[in-house]
User: Fold this.
Amino acid sequence: MPVKAKISNSTVKTLKPSDKRLNDTDISGFHARITDNGKIKYYLFYRLNGKQVNYLLGADGQITPAQARDLAKDKIAEVTKGIDVQAVKKDAKEQVKLSKLSTLLAFVDQKYAPWLTTRNPKTAKQAIHNLKVAFPNFLNLQLSAITAWEVEKWRSDKKAADLKPASINRRLNTLKGCLSRAVEWEIIDGHDLNKVKALKVDNSKVRYLDKGEELRLREALRARDAKIKEQRNSANKFREERNYEQLHDLSINTFADYLEPIVLLAMNTGMRRGEILSLEWQNVDLTNRNLTIISDNAKSGKTRHIPLNTEAFQTLNNWKLDSGSLGALFKGQNGKPLLEIRKSWETVLDMAKIENFRFHDLRHHFASRLVMASVDLNTVRELLGHSDLTMTLRYAHLAPEHKAAAVNLIG
Assistant:
């Protein structure tokens, strides 16, 4: 008789050949099968349009029980939408035979990139770019030739080049995800990259601005703003002398351009750069002083609402008067949503003489200020949009008075 239990590392380890099958108690149709020689594979049984399918999710060792569970959830979601995932897999396999997708580059360009684009068009292009930039020496390798040994050599080179462990882990996870998709589509039988364990990352080191740095950053933003306005006034004076059409008078604006409001918003909301640049005015409620990050633009995939403190509210209110209230909050010179602020951001950091500080660190700055103001970690988690407290705990050491209060309870 099949065994019934939640499929996990512990239950899979106790599975015996005589059990034949382990049915998951949480996800209908999700099960594991074990052969007489002890090999285990994960499946999802589903019905669609009268058709019964036992969909192979992967073999134990190539994917973990948790990964199989997540994949089962994804496939159930697709089946619910009327997609026959087995037929999709079969089609992908046939396309491989026709196009001879044997190298990483061919697979990425012809199959993986189009698939990513259908799932998340906004991030697919950047994800593929990052994959190619991170692994240029792998692009012309056969998929089956990308082994744990080759990846370990790549990782050793990156560590020697002082690439941070967190960055190495992110790039490696991108490659693992790509090859796992090739396994799911039966383009390759499997890969052994799960043998390459993630590097330990010290998340307790958080970069945020000290009081002097924050003061210099604010002064640099205002100085840059004043310089742009001065240059515009000079240009208009030049044009007036020659009877040319005048450019918009920036002196009547609070902000000369997008950079200062973007930075102030990041410092006061903890939003990621992508979340800020994807904001539209319809997501901003100045009446109730809050804004909404819709699920499509959130890293977590979940909608969240962020209250606006006084500075954030005044910043957005003034920016609305400066730029209008239609479409994207921040637009480039072509009128389209702004995609990048790197050059202007680096310029203002140089002006402020601030080193080793990324735009993303403004998010850490926001969280750190909250924790040092005795805001509880769960509230910080909700504001940052973390799915659990694991990531938020990196800020816990900034509230030593909480620990002192705790031990004093028994003192």
Q: What stands out?
A: The radius of gyration is 26 Å. The longest helix spans residues 211-241. The chain has a mean pLDDT of 87. The chain has 16 helices and eight strands.
